[in-house]
Amino acid sequence: MHASLEPASHYFYSDRLKLQFWDWGTEGKPVLILVHGTRDHARSWDWIARALRDDYHVYALDLRGHGNSAWAPGALYSVPEHILDLTVFADIIGKYPVRLIGHSLGAMVSLYFSGTYPEKVAKLVAIEGVGVGPLGSTPKPAPERMRNWIGKTRDLEDHAARTYADLAAAVARMKEANPFLSDEVARHLTLHGTNWNADGSLVWKFDNYTRVIHPFGLGLEEATQILGQIACPTLLFWGRQSFARDPDGDPQAAAIRNKTIVKVDQAGHWLHHDQLELFLRETKKSLADEKQR
Questions:
Q1: What are the start-end ranges of the H helices in the chain?
Q2: What per-residue confidence (pLDDT) applies to 4?
Q3: Torsion angle of the four alpha carbons 148, 153, 159, 160, in this order, in degrees rounded to the nearest 10
Q4: Cβ distance 105 to 82 under 8 Å?
Q5: Strand 57-61 to 31-35 pairing
Q6: What residues pair up with 99 in beta bridges, in sequence order?
Q7: Among 209, 203, 204, which Cα is nearest to 74's?
């Protein structure tokens, strides 16, 4: 293993935005792309990237508006926009078929990418990419969704992003959001997920406008049409202590034909942090099973 290895930082352009990615190596190995969740960043994958880089050429993206990637004023930060960016990045690498691991929003992006371009993906691991968000529940009336979106967007214009007096305060907020995190993991995620203001306070790197959900995204029928086109073996993870819905019985999960569901005890929404060894064991087994190509 290469425990002390640091990834190389690079940028690419998509939709006129300068977006960050991290290259963990190893050249000549099958390509594996890691896609983080909302208000997260690519360095949240560090433990997983180190564990997998001996067998794969690992890349980790900072989605638009996240990490060190550019913010997108006027954009909706919608799932299709993130899919566009992933499509550009995968074409730049140009070594198909790729393997994808995504978490939450990143899992949605990876799932829909795989259903849009099924020939380009060999294996897919989705951590809580189904059973989150409004899909699968009764949608609110369209006028209400429109008003909510406008109200939340305009409200953000009047409220600056929250700041933290010091690193310890930001780490405490990180642990509040996920009580399963160890002190070490929480500190790492916070160090890579914050910037310092001139007065010494810290602010999260993500654009606050990523908090607002597009009012008229993919509907359930459209989503299941796309997910039904996924051709590769798909591993779906769910944390039993998560707010996400159980994938058994979820219409999005049901649309995915070649899938395996892994339910993880003592794990919430960030189960790849909460139960890292189990996650790596099941993921390595799925990725390495050449009979399921």
A1: 46-52, 79-93, 105-116, 142-157, 167-177, 183-193, 220-227, 251-255, 271-274, 276-288
A2: 60
A3: 140
A4: yes
A5: parallel
A6: 32, 123
A7: 209
Residue 65 Rama label (left phi>0; alpha psi -120 to 50; beta): left
Helix axes 79-93, 105-116, angle to 10 degrees: 60
pLDDT for the residue 178: 92
Cα dist from 6 to 9, 28, 102, 221, whole Å:
9, 19, 21, 42
The phi and psi torsions of 178 (rounded to 5 degrees) equal -140, 90
**Which of 48, 118, 44, 105 has its CA nearest to residue 77?**
105
Q: Given the DSSP bridges, would you call strands 121-127 and 98-103 parallel, antiparallel or unpaired?
A: parallel
HSE-up of residue 211 (Cα within 13 Å, Cβ side): 17
Percentage of the chain surpassing pLDDT 90?
A: 88
Give the three-state DSSP class for 278: helix
d(CA 93, CA 118): 17
- Enter the tokens of residue 226: 């796309």
Which CATH architecture group holds 8-137+208-292? 3-Layer(aba) Sandwich (3.40)
Indicate the domain borders of the chain.
Answer: 8-137+208-292
What would the 3-class secondary structure string for 214-242 be?
CCCCCCHHHHHHHHCCCCCCEEEEEECCC
CA 18 to CA 26: how far, in whole Å?
24
Contact 279, 237 (CB under 8 A): yes
Q: 3-class SS at 30?
A: coil
- Determine what percent of the chain is predicted with pLDDT higher than 70: 97
Kindly compute the dihedral angle of the four CA atoms of residues 143, 152, 225, 131, in this order, to the nearest 10 degrees: -120
Which regions of the chain are under pLDDT 50? 1, 291-293
Q: What is the pLDDT of residues 247-271, one digit of tens each?
A: 998 999 999 999 999 999 999 999 9
